[in-house]
Design a protein that fits this description.
Radius of gyration: 27 Å
Largest sheet: 7 strands, mixed, barrel
Structural class: alpha+beta
Strand order of the largest sheet: 1-2-6-9-8-7-5
Number of helices: 8
Number of strands: 9
């Protein structure tokens, strides 16, 4: 069971609700050590004085702020500590805003907020239900681990959710960062209609469980294949950009292809459901990760490039061949 990483209270108006903060996300990135090629020797980094070439103890290192012209202002660690935010135990809601009004570019990291004790559940539930009913987000600031955060507090699925936000000064101006801003030309009527039709044909309900970190899965597979001495399959090259003269044709073929794939997928799902009644679990109900594991156990090649439906078809075919 996870431990809270912060505890304090939510303040809105004259109402105070003691809460605990839990991280809602985790990083599955695979970490590597560094080695010298051809050896088993680890690479380690040292803090070296570039003038003397000697290693410097961590306690003797200070920070320097570049003020231009090769000059630096030296800052001692205790000077930074002196101006750091204090130890906060409150999430002070300054205002409530429409949740949809917050541009997602501001969103940073998400946490769960739970009542600190059962006795605070009534006030917690009231705030949760009121925010859900109004679709509002509470804009608040609080301090965690010596850093001040701007946050949006909103109603989640049975929990209050706190998302840290980037301050406006943290956002870059695209006009200053890009070589040039894209020139938006007026779309031709038929092309625009066809693009809208393609978007419509690809529209579906948001189902986050359908999506997985396929790169991490491929890294895990690479490690497993190299460890077992198996052949390593590389990714195919990306598609070439569409020529402007072929734009309408490409859109038309995309709409038609999407329609056929959807019809084929529906037929395939129906067949799989029928075939799976006597052959183990219903593949149509499994996630891509579960299907990928089954494909790995069945040693199906090229599985890392397959979509969820393709994995289901490959697993069904492999099981049928094994049964025969």
């Amino acid at each position: 069971m996870a431990r809270p990483i912060w505890n304090g209270a939510i303040n809105f108006g004259l109402v105070t609700v003691p809460v605990e903060l839990y991280s809602a996300t985790e990083d599955h990135t695979i970490s590597f050590r560094q080695f010298e090629r051809g050896t088993s020797d680890r690479i380690r980094y040292k803090r070296i004085n570039e003038r003397t070439g000697e290693e410097v103890p961590f306690s003797d290192i200070v920070k320097g702020a570049d003020i231009g012209g090769g000059d630096y202002v030296i800052i001692e660690p205790d000077e930074l500590d002196a101006i750091a935010p204090g130890r906060s135990r409150t999430i002070d809601i300054d205002a409530f805003v429409d949740l949809d009004a917050i541009d997602p570019i501001h969103f940073q990291k998400t946490y769960w907020l739970a009542p600190a004790k059962e006795e605070y559940a009534r006030a917690y539930s009231l705030l949760l239900q009121a925010m859900a009913k109004t679709n509002k987000a509470g804009v608040a600031t609080f301090v965690m681990r010596g850093k001040e955060y701007l946050t949006a507090l909103r109603a989640g699925d049975g929990l209050l959710v706190l998302t840290t936000l980037l301050f406006p000064e943290d956002l870059r101006d695209p006009a200053k960062e890009l070589k040039s801003m894209p020139e938006i030309t007026a779309a031709r009527g038929k092309e625009l209609d066809m693009a809208v039709s393609l978007i419509g044909s690809m529209s579906e309900e948001w189902e986050p469980e359908k999506y997985h970190d396929t790169y991490t899965q491929r890294v895990e597979q690479l490690i497993e294949d190299k460890s077992a001495g198996r052949e390593i399959v590389t990714e195919s090259e990306p598609a070439q950009p569409t020529k402007v003269v072929d734009l309408f044709d490409a859109l038309s073929r995309s709409v038609e292809g999407r329609k056929k794939r959807r019809e084929g997928a529906e037929d395939s799902v129906a067949k799989r459901r029928s075939a799976s009644r006597d052959k183990g679990p219903d593949l149509a109900s499994l996630s891509k990760a579960e299907l990928d594991k089954m494909a790995r156990d069945l040693e199906i090649k090229g599985r890392s490039k397959m979509s969820r439906d393709e994995l289901a078809e490959a697993v069904a075919a492999a099981r049928s061949a094994g049964a025969a």
